[in-house]
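Continuing the series of single-chain predictions for the mutant panel. This is the parent chain; the variants come on the following pages.
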Amino acid sequence: MTETDPAELAGLRARGDLLAADNSAVRLRLAELENERDERDRQIARLTGALTDAARRIGDLDRERAAQEHRAELAEWQIAALATRRWARLGGALTAFRARPASPASFRRLRGALRAEPEPPEPPAERRPPRHPEVKVADTESLDVPAAEVPEGPVARPGLTAAVVLGPVLEASLRYEWRQVSGFGADDWREVFEAERPGLLLVEPVATGLPIADLARWCRDRGVPSVYWDTGPGLSADAALFDHVFTVDADAVPAHRERLGHDRVHALPFAAQPRLHNPVRAGDRGRYPLLYEGEYDAAAEQLIAPAPRLGAHFYGTGFPHMYRQRVVAPLPYGPSLAARKRYRLLLAPDPRRAVEAAAAGVPVVHHREPAASPAFGPVARDGKDASRLLRALLNGPELRDRQAHLAVRSVHEAHTYRHRIDTVLRMLDEERPGGEAHFAEAERPAVSLLLPTCRPEQIGPAIEQAARQTWRPLQLVLVLHGLGLDPADVEKRALAAGVDDVVVIAADRSVSLGGCLNLAIDAADGTHLGKIDDDELYGPHYLSDLLPAFSYTDAGVVGKLAHYAHLASIGATLLRYPEHEHRYVDVLRGGALLGEGDLIRAYRFADLGRGEDTDLFRRLRADGVRVYAADRFSFITIRHADATRHTWRPSDLELLADSRLAFYGLAEEHVLF
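Parent structure:
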């Protein structure tokens, strides 16, 4: 840009050329701003260099201090060792003997000095400055990270055998999706394939001695579908031999199609495996503030720069020297899954880590909008925005936990490896003559909600609660307990509200609450049975949030223990049992439980008017059936001002004493949606 001299600018104004003068003024101001920007860049460079030098000097001082402390300890040891020598002890004993020759103590000291020399003390170990003096918790030993448990199953598609050539991450994640054949070598793969003929072949670009082209040709000659999954760094020449090509980079699809000369190339992002990536809590979850995993990315500097001041740890490589005290080597894959849950935020993750962390309930913060996959978290636009965003999330547990909750929901709606494999299988079926469906997808489990009620005014709201559930297929089994209502009329109301399948049963008032529930169990068709109450609030995702827990836990019953409770008497909403969220527990809220259908049918409820839930959990616990408490959202229990409306009747003061006041009002947008 050509700068304008101030004298020239004044001349233009004097000649009356105002437009030219204004343009010249703009150019002059822009030049000044560019000079200011360049000077700021030079200042930043100088400050960065100064910080690096300061970090180096601090390291040198640490080493010098450690050396001085070692020399001091060594001198103390030498003095102590000399004091044990016989001649040193004898000199002191003779001096005492001359002062008091007739003293028995002097004789004893002299005899002791003439005995054999005792062992000198151990010399001090050499002191070395700790590699990360400010973050001793950042190494694997001090974190005491356990190896992640790798459950055996179950397998989603036991009738489908897949031969795979995958890296360790995908191989571990996909072993739950089918019967997986792997580990064969260049010398025995033909024998393995003939012995266990695969239904498909899946290959990703990993270093292997296998003849990938021969594997693909073998499958093509025998009509076995073959799939190449480009997970990075790109296509190999062998990709052209595969029936379908998928890539985690959606932007690369056009280039891959052009290179391969066909349109059987599709985007297939990374996903989560619920058996490995899940929010089940263990140990000190959220103990540490921030974690960055992987190779240093200069593009993420806006997030990384403020992170050390907030207590971040960096598990990675390639970091500038100024961050060295916060950096440790990356963890192996298994321990990294366990370590990740100990942090409140994950910074700038790559797409694979982002979806895995989201499934584990660890909030993520991005430095740019992911191009081909959901963000599962907010994006910091610049450095100032990043610092504020990190502090807001670290200081706001409700903000952080709600983000994590919504991310877990998003993963289970569309981003598990079950979804990815379903996508692959659908496309393979489309290639078959006549569109024959060879690879059947797993059916969604049907849920039956059991709802006994003795309050006619609550029937309408209760039906609405069931009808707004997003999960389908759904059945509502409603037991009219001592009410003189026509079951057919109630059924019509429920069907009109949008419930797909409705069963209405009339029960005499003499039947206990447990007996009413057993009537509902006998009439229910669902593969899962849930018990709800007529005066609680259930969000539309109540069921869809609970059902995934059966895919990543060994529980026979899941539900809520951590929950929000609204006290109508004072208009306050409490958070109860927050420590019992995403954990195996002994009991759940009676109005928020969901169990495997066959299990609930086998155990049923005791013939009790009160405490039938407690009795059920006691029997389950005695038989070793595990019970899991999920998140605290999508459910609010209502405590009416009239305590006689409840079968369980603690006072409001009792509830306040054992809970945390969350807010006044219901805050349905925060809790239920």
